[in-house]
Amino acid sequence: MNPQRMRLALARERLLERSRLLRGIAVEQSAALSPALRFGDSVRDGVQWVRLHPEVIAAAAVGIFLLRPRRVWRWGLRLWGGWRLLQQVQHRLGSGSRRS
């Protein structure tokens, strides 16, 4: 084997070893993200379940409405008012940033 090929083979081996080392470090460091990723997976699974079972959500909403209609109306109005307030704040912040 000529010296040029020998140098290239040695450099290749060094790069492969460095790649293995960096992969191991990445695996160790990504372990810190594991809880957040698991939480994200469970949220995604919950959303998927709700999409597959909308009748359960509808039945729960109807049940709540039948049991406590006054409370449902009160919270509904509060949520609607909060949503409107949020829309106004976003609109004012958006139009204020365009003037500058």
Brief synopsis:
With 100 residues, this protein is mainly alpha-helical. The chain is 92% helix and 0% strand. Helix 3 (54-67) packs across helix 4 (69-99).
Description of the molecule:
By secondary structure, the protein is mainly alpha-helical. Helices cover 92% and strands 0% of the residues. The longest helix has 31 residues, at 69-99. The N and C termini lie far apart (69 Å). 0% of the residues are buried. The model has no long low-confidence stretch (mean pLDDT 87).
Main attributes?
single chain; mainly alpha; 4 helices
> Count of DSSP E strands?
0
Low-confidence stretches: none
- What structural category characterises the helix and strand content? mainly alpha
Described by the principal axes of the CA atoms, the overall outline is elongated
Q: Termini separation (Å)?
A: 69 Å
Radius of gyration based on Cα positions = 29 Å
Secondary structure blueprint with pairings:
Blueprint: H1 3-30, H2 34-52, H3 54-67, H4 69-99
Helix pairs in contact: 3-4
